[in-house]
Structures
1.
Amino acid sequence: MLHAIEEKFRSRPAADGALAQEHFSLTESSRDPIYVTRPFLPPLDELQELLAEIWSNQILTNNGPLHTRFEAALAEYLGVEHVALVANGTLALTVTLQTLKMSGEVITTPYSFVATSHALKLLGLEPVFVDVKRDDYSLDPARIEAAITPRTVAIMPVHCYGNPCDIAAIDAIAKRHGLRVIYDAAHAFGVKKDGATVLNGGDFSSLSFHATKAFNTFEGGAIVAPSAEAKLAINRMKNFGFRDEVTVESVGGNGKMSEFNAALGLLQLKYFEGVRKARRRVDAIYREALAGVEGIDCVPVPKGVEPNYSYFPILVQPDFSLSRDALYDRFKAANIHTRRYFYPLITDFPMYSDLPSAQSPNLPVATEIAKRILCLPIYPGLSESDQERVIERITGV
Ligand code: T4K
């Protein structure tokens, strides 16, 4: 299996090599674009076999046979007991919050994709922003208690770039204050700490299987629940609140995953370890090439963590010869599309910026990281020659 994946990826550098020769005299911007990520796609003929099953049984959604198979295989692979599939990572958050039926304040991070706090807002909850840690950009447990008020009902941290939060510290704070914890684990598919999944922390964890994630089903997501009862409540909430054919117990929406996405998920699971290995290779090449570059810091992998290598963030420090945005522009001119995840901060967006907790003196670390961060291209099919093009834009300044 691994061999097949590596063969598939190897075919690209050859083609690129030919292209590089042929286009030798062209300007940089006319060379092939390199994106921050490209999705891994399983072999089409294997998907066709599963599609033939769908065509034959004509069950397209609503808990069909592929959904059931994928859900079971996913639980086993992730090392969790109760997992419910949903249509995307944002619904994983909103369906969980709906199920918990809370009102009040939720402590969360400004340093994430905007879906994290939008999910709170969509459910009428009030985000309260707390700063992140300097080493891994996840919610700083040392600052959480000062933000707790009588109206606080939950904490929603993010395993940023797949680096696990300090789950033990956060869960202990929540227990002391009677709060719920919902981990936004959109980046943390397959991540382990000390050999165990990070998805069993808190009350719930939500996953995203978006096209840009390490594990994708085109669109998709999942909720890791703490018990069979909690999973049942999620399943009802994602299906309009139906308890049985004639009973609707709550105001739910439609959060279900289709059979097509489940078919993809089943196949992607087969290939995920190969994908992780291919990403690890890209990660290792960057770390080696950038180790001695003054003013460029790679984000270290925390001790005991098995990452999924979803992102390759670097910090462009003041002693680098270009500012972060000048480096971003230099990449762009070379048709290399890096991303500034997560700039602007969520707290800079107008629907949050007036909140007292959103003010930058309250968030010094997140404010500084957002100015310096740049995510470099990383994906299984990134050829060594394309990665060299990326590295040269930094080392050749
Ligand atoms: N919580 C967190 C912490 C999250 O990061 C996210 C999503 C969520 C919750 C919500 O999960 P979902 O509801 O999305 O499942 C992307 C993604 O759209 C978003 O899923 C992700 N986080 C966020 C960090 O990044 P953009 O605006 O950067 O995506 P886009 O379309 O610019 O794609 C980036 C590059 O990827 C493109 O330049 C090319 C490549 N690409 C993209 C797509 C969609 C492909 O090669 N193929 C594709 O199909 O937001």
2.
Amino acid sequence: MDSSLTGITTTGTPHLGNYVGAIKPAIQLSKKFKSYLFLADYHSLIKVNDPDAVKESSMKIAATWLACGLDSKNSLFYRQSKVPQILELNWILSCMAPKGLLNRAHAYKAAVDLNKENKNDEDFGISHGLFSYPVLMSADILMFNPKYVPVGKDQKQHLEITRDIADKFNKTYKNFFQLPEPIIDESLDLLTGTDGRKMSKSYNNSIDLFSSEKILQKSINKIKTDSKEPGEKKETKDSIIFQYFNHFSDEEEINEITKEFEEGIGWGDAKKKLFTKINQEISPLRDKYFDLINNPKLIEDTLEAGETKARDEANKNLEKIKEKIGI
Ligand code: ADP
Ligand code: TRP
């Protein structure tokens, strides 16, 4: 049976971008395929060194997956750190990963470029973890050999690196891994944050998925628009408000809002309508989320059950991989 796998790094609080880019598509795929859905807690150490913050974020992200409909009986739901076989595979794959390929990884390259502009030392503040981040991500994926990996557009390069590493392994040791296919909706942009950049937990520009109605409304009101008055035709292209409608509406609703843009809907009315649209979808999930956050034992038990299954499978797969490499 084909399978699908995705993870979210346990930094901060899940936001609307994580929801539309990864969580929602992954839950949809989990209805059709065997699914591996996990918390990338070891990845978080690259950015966060506050133990309480890592723990709190893990709980929030786990509760989010469950509130959004993850069916833990029919999927494998786990923390990356509780499946140590992933770290063994990480070493094996790091011996297959050309350094030149990792030099070109976006996050590392961006950090080096920034240092070149601002510092004498191009390695300033860059950990080995940041450099080898894509290898750990390859290990997350190849540990379970999934066919599909639903992610946001920003992860495209990481999937290409994973495929390159898998291909190198296959050529070195004879075919073993299937090359995972990213599931990325190319027609949708990454969701923009309140400051106009990609919404990200790291940029302090995100709208929390489960913020209260009041805060959701306030955050939507803060989204940048042009200065056109009500009655003036609004452009859909480059409008952040329209981009949000695109992520949260069906085709018929998109046609309706496109027409309203042409007819000059005021930004205030467009924002009210957007709030109603998003809140309608999120509201029932929000209630479930807060029930779960107040029941950490249930979250812990659910994860532990998934981790037992994940370790069991990982062990079997790792044995086969080790046999291939002569260990
Ligand atoms: P962040 O950048 O906020 O730390 P993560 O790196 O943990 O988020 O991303 C988890 C998943 O959410 C990934 O699949 C990523 O592509 C997706 N994602 C993150 N930000 C956005 C966004 N602004 N729009 C769409 N998808 C996003
Ligand atoms: N790198 C991903 C992100 O920051 C999170 C992640 C870690 C992931 N391992 C993964 C996503 C494996 C998909 C598959 O968004």
3.
Amino acid sequence: MLSEKTLQALNKQIALEGNASASYLAMASWCERQGLNGCATFFYDQSAEERMHMMKIIHYVNEMDGHAVISEQEKPKGEYNSVQELFKAVYQQEKSVTSAIYELLSISDEESDHSTTLFLQWYVAEQREEEAQIRTILDKIKLIGTGGQSLYFIDQEVQNINAQRGQEEAGGEEGVA
Ligand code: OFO
């Protein structure tokens, strides 16, 4: 059974993950329009991941006899001036999701809600990985710079990350089978 305070915080997190999913979808579409296919794939995948994060919380809340609320989604930003600006926005977004997860953990700790604390551990690890990945991309963008073919090389780097991610996921699935 979830306390009212925890339930409210989890429902807020459902909305946050849903907004993150929509925001990545809008970014994917922007990248696709710019011909940045590696970045577009990255964000389409990321959007699906955030939806999965949202679904996990919905199932958890309902399993705990709570009522998962699906609220109205914010309209995501659809235009960017550059790929640099876009990845900086992603980093800020992920940092605010991490803060929200930490806040949720403070509530579950305060209430000795061990089940929710355990459930949230997965999100802590996930956020650490996601933030590290975006920092890597930002570092590469800085190294590549803004010269003539920089967009091509940035997109290639992100495409390499997609391939790496695909391999890791395939490895994970094999491990599960
Ligand atoms: Fe990366 O936002 Fe979900 O947890």
